[in-house]
Amino acid sequence: MADTAGAFPLDCLVIANPTAGTVTEGLVREVAARCGRHTRVSVVRTRAPGDAARAARDAVRGADRARTGEGVRVVVAVGGDGTVLEVVNGLMDGAGPGDRAALLVVPAGTGNSGYRSHWGTRPWEEAVDTALTGLPASLRRLDLARVRERDALVALGAGAGLTAEVLRSARQAPQRGRARLRAGLEHAAARFVPYPGRVSVDGTVVHEGETVLVNVGGGRHRAWQYLVLPQSELDDGLLDVCVVGSGTAPADVPALLLTGEHVDRPGVVYRTGRSVCVERTDGLPLCFEHDGELLADAGTRLTLDVLPGVLPVLCAPRPGPAAAKRQERAGSVSEPVR
């Protein structure tokens, strides 16, 4: 994005998905009113898949036409991780050399891991105020990934094995929200059988053999509560990958993921790189998800490539060196250290 020393919000387009987990008409009005304290606001309510992407794409093109000073058009995604991914696809599809549209997430889905990766556990009202009054500090360019074989964007992260199976199990769980995802993981973990797999990072094999799970991405948390990639940074130009092998019983995984202690277990590999290849070596298809959606007909091999610094996002500003050191001494993992 161009020099943003004098950046201010041109306007906010609120894109709300009425079918997302906790979206209500009252919440949409509240979000619009909150944004309206700082700039002009318009609201789009999606009716069908693809609506959010189209609205975001049009917002980017409108911002490019406006070119008013250093203003930034803000696209506010109100929904879950699926809604966020659709908005991201629209933003990226409409983006050009002079793009001036930035994403802001309001959590209203089941997992809301995208919001947590941007803002930690702070209330969304505080996040909106900080984002819209804190420019240019709150404006950062975050990494995305692309599934090479499908030409599909990944906003938050991807998983194979147990952390993908949880999505199937959660469909049968009677709970709602995050409790449903937790119940789904515990149910899947109790029955999961490791699969023969191989993982390569930048062309080097880092794991081969029995595989419980593989997670790749930039967000530290999945399903809000699981600290799957505790060392990940949102804008370092790299993908983090964590592989849990046969040294960890699948039934032990849910408790370990809550604290990030899985990374210290025998047989666990944690690496960073620009390209990650995930394979199943017995000829059967991978169970694979990204951004909380199972990928149908995944095949036996998928490759994720990093797209460094391509997505303008309003999120928690980077702390200065002193703040980063305080967080490190405190051992805090509830919010991303930036």
Strand content: 25-35%
Let me know the average pLDDT: 88
User: Tell me, what's the shape?
Assistant: globular
Give the helix proportion (percent range): 25-40%
Number of strands: 17
Number of helices: 9
Q: What is the CA-CA span between the terminal residues?
A: 20 Å
And the CATH topology of the largest domain? Answer: Tumour Suppressor Smad4
| Integer count of domains | 2
**Nearest-angstrom radius of gyration?**
19 Å
Please summarize the sheet with the most strands.
11 strands, antiparallel
User: What CATH architecture of the largest domain would you give?
Assistant: Sandwich
CATH class of the largest domain: Mainly Beta
Derived from helix and strand composition plus strand pairing, the structural class reads alpha+beta
- Which stretches are low in confidence, meaning pLDDT under 50 for 5 or more residues running? 1-5, 321-338
Order of helices and strands: EHEHEHEHHEEEHHEEEEEHEEEEEH
Descriptors for this entry?
338 residues; Rossmann fold; Tumour Suppressor Smad4; 2 domains; 9 helices; 17 strands; 33% strand
